[in-house]
Amino acid sequence: MAKVSRPEVAAAFMRPPAGVLLGRLVQEGALSRAEAEIARELPISEDICVEADSAGHTDGRSAYALMPAMLSLRDEEMARHGYAKPIRAGASGGLGAPEAVAAAFVLGAEFVITGSVNQCSPEAGTSDAVKEMLAGLDVQDTAYAPAGDMFELGAKVQVARKGTLFPARANKLYQLYRRYGSLEEIDEATRRMIEEKYFGRSFDEVWAETRDYLAERKAYELERAEQNPKHRMALIFRWYFVHSIRLAMRGAPGQEVDYQVHCGPAMGAFNRFVAGTDLADWRNRHVDVIAERLMRGAADLLDARFRAMLATPAK
């Protein structure tokens, strides 16, 4: 399955693998010649999940615009390559209420995938402190922040905003990275604020930890950082993004302001949907129960709407 939010990326997954790639796989023994011949008539992915505005890495796309475009692209690629089996297209992003799930199916989705709402469940691997935070969110309680793994590129992730200062602090670090060429150019007051309030340790301490990690796993990255002060600054700032995820995962008490929690507005929508029910408490939100409530709610909603439409005389 390929999870995509851009048509040009989706198109690559809907097409057969390149002949050069297949040839190399045959040479490496990863595929037989017969398997490679079959692969020439198959898409790289037979399931495409169209990702609208979502938690974590997101292009912030509207499902209402994105889904029709992707379905049209799917039909074009199906006709062009003459696949015997249809490419299935599903939807994700923003699915926290039965109305949203119903809308996805009306738009043409053949399956749906939830994300944010599953993080607020007993099965989720994050801390109870994060689950309590998520259970208290409304639809407006998210924000966009720089992505730690693509910090220099300015890529964004969507995170929880209520109860944490992470989005504001992460954006501040990115502004400083864009403005300055090295840590030494940052004024003393700003430097002290970051070290004391954001990091809880000095830049030198962060660099020592980062340097040890790179020396063991990415020596080439360490060499680049020692030659390029701006890259060294980026690596030190990126440490905060890893640190903030670790704090959230273990539910570090007293450090909630630095929790990085990937989350989209679907969480707030789900909290409103289950308010006053047995699922108001996240401890009852088992993932299978969440799926059943959303799907059953969407089915009931669609049934009622279509019945109402059929009962209304056409004008």
TrEMBL record:
Coiled coil feature spans: none
Origin: domain of life: Bacteria
Every [Acyl-carrier-protein] S-malonyltransferase-like inserted helical domain range: 180-259
Molecular function per GO: acyltransferase activity
Signal peptide: none
Keywords: Acyltransferase, Transferase
Keyword Acyltransferase: yes
InterPro entries tied to this protein: Aldolase_TIM, FabD-like_helical_ins, PfaD-like_TIM-barrel
Protein name (record): Trans-AT polyketide synthase, acyltransferase and oxidoreductase domain-containing protein
Source organism of the structure: Streptosporangium subroseum
